[in-house]
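Final report, Chapter 2: Outcomes

The project's central promise was a pipeline that accepts a single protein chain and returns its three-dimensional structure in a standardized token representation, suitable for archiving and comparison. That pipeline is now operational. To close this chapter, we reproduce one record exactly as it appears in the project archive, with the input sequence first and the structure output second.
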Amino acid sequence: MSVNPLIPVILCGGSGTRLWPLSRESFPKQYLTIDGSYKKSFLQKTQLRLKGLKNIENPLIICNEEHRFIAAEQMREIDIKPKRILLEPFGRNTAPAITLSALLSLEEYTNPNLLILSADHEIKDVEKFIKVVEKGIKYSEEGKLVTFGVIPESPETGYGYIQGDKPFNKENLVASNIIKFTEKPDYETAKEFIKNKCFTWNSGIFLFKANNILKEIKKFSPEILKYCEKSILKKLFDLDFQRLDKQIFGKCPNISIDYAVMEKTNKGVVLPMDVGWSDVGDWQSMWKNSPKDKNGNSLNGEVLLHQTKNSLFRSESRLIVGLGVEDLIVVETNDVMLVANKNKSQDIKKIVNKLKEKGVSEGYEHKKIYRPWGHYISVLEELRWKVKVIIVKPGQTLSLQMHHHRSEHWVVVNGTAKVEIDGKKIILHENQSSYIPLGSKHRLSNPGKIPLKLIEVQSGEYVGEDDIKRFEDNYGRVGNS
């Protein structure tokens, strides 16, 4: 086995819209904790399942700027300090992300192995997965670009397919040279594929040495390499994060590593794996991969059913009752109720797009919004006023800020608040309150050892979240936002 370091590269992009309303742009699928018994998010499970690998290093994480504090906090919760959290100003698919990860890894290592992982996959047999990755390292050390193909169980139209040059064998871990990739075929084509043992599902997991993938990127997609190199030249660090030059990165082609390199190179191989993999890409696959009752129902939260079959019910905040129905997806959050035919769950993305076109905030934003200091929940809102519940973690501080169009009233429900208004500081305890006039510089802190919970009432001619000017901030967020 190689003594070269193995660097996990965890790709955290994507909005997971087919799992709406639970997954939205403000808090997408990869950060959700959907398995109630394990209490870990998809991102956390992606990292934790790597524990058995030899020579494993801390991960390099690539995520959207908006989610940087969520990713950092979830890594902190499992005692992992990433080598780097690289912030993309916008998504450019997997080829640029992988190129950036290879370039950054070579700043510290000579030629490490890179294990490219999506942050939102489910793998049931972790022990077998470790064995497959270890086999993949051997091929990587031989100069191969390894992709992992999932042995298909059914003719799925939501997955891409990889054709190898020889049939796979579940009992014998041997890689095949890649013949071609097919992106999400129709049902009849998918049925033909799974009859042919040369086809596997495309897992989107890759393994190769940094220099090897960069050579192939330079050969087949030189523009990607050029703009990725330029986008990190300025070394734009922000606390624990590294930013890209937004203008330069915007010129980078938007393309997957499959199309940019893997379909063209003669070094690509596919290694079959049978590890209980799923990308849990929609509610039907969520139902399929969940524990079920004797009637085939997947239940989460407060649910009561009678004469109901083969359905998924998920309650986040209230009782759901199902009577005499089957093949349904019913998902309730504190602001949305989804009721869908289970076989139409792939089309939920279309509904989300319609909501965004109409400017409906529920299409992209949760009522609960995470911030580096804690979170807030929007409770009620009309044209000139808004009510929030704000939770500030112990020892954390919001920015010194002001608003041009609204005043605020804070009422402490639990914990201790330190309030600064125009230079004057006061301490508030339970049932005490403070008024912040329009235009005042103010800041809220939690000096205590328990979470601070308060009610905020905003009033004014405009109560949008973009009416804020920051003067000082512990998290690097200064200016208008």
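Archive annotation: The chain has eleven helices and 31 strands.
This record, like all others produced under the grant, will remain available to the consortium after the project formally closes.
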